[in-house]
Specification:
Length: 147
């Protein structure tokens, strides 16, 4: 009986992790404009937060900048925000508490942060990692702009 329960739980977890979640999306025109990766004004910094994996496609994960929710990600989506130069705390919803990333935004520069999904004990967790400009631009080019 226990073995059947565990197999059913594993099958359900797999189904949840491989289904597809959807989030509100921006227009294709705005998406394409942001994929030119223009440098922000010298008194601002650009921030791309992207999720370029299909792992956990059924999960939506909240993203925050300095405690303010900017939205939820789904598989192969990204956000773009202009932020002030200086230190910022990015957070993403994870299994038991938010995972944090400290980012020091540089004026006139775009920053690229990957949100990755990882298997958890009960639900999938998420992690944020800053990546290089070339890696970030390549990943964002294959995702779509979420609202």
């Amino acid at each position: 009986m226990f073995k059947q329960f565990m197999m059913s739980a594993a099958a359900l977890s797999f189904a949840v992790m491989t289904g597809c979640a959807s989030v509100p999306m921006e227009s294709p025109e705005k998406d394409q404009a942001l994929k030119t990766f223009a440098a922000p004004a010298q008194d601002q910094a650009g921030l791309y937060i992207f999720r370029d994996s299909m792992l956990g496609a059924a999960l939506k994960k909240t993203v925050k900048i300095d405690g303010e929710v900017i939205g939820e990600t789904a598989a192969n989506t990204y956000f773009y925000r202009l932020i002030t130069p200086g230190p910022h705390t990015l957070a993403t919803e994870s299994e038991f508490s938010d995972n944090l990333l400290e980012l020091n935004a540089v004026a006139g520069k775009n920053h690229y942060v990957r949100q990755s999904i990882k298997m958890g004990l009960f639900v999938g967790g998420a992690k944020l990692t800053e990546v290089s400009e070339s890696e970030g631009q390549k990943a964002v080019a294959n995702t779509e702009l979420a609202r």
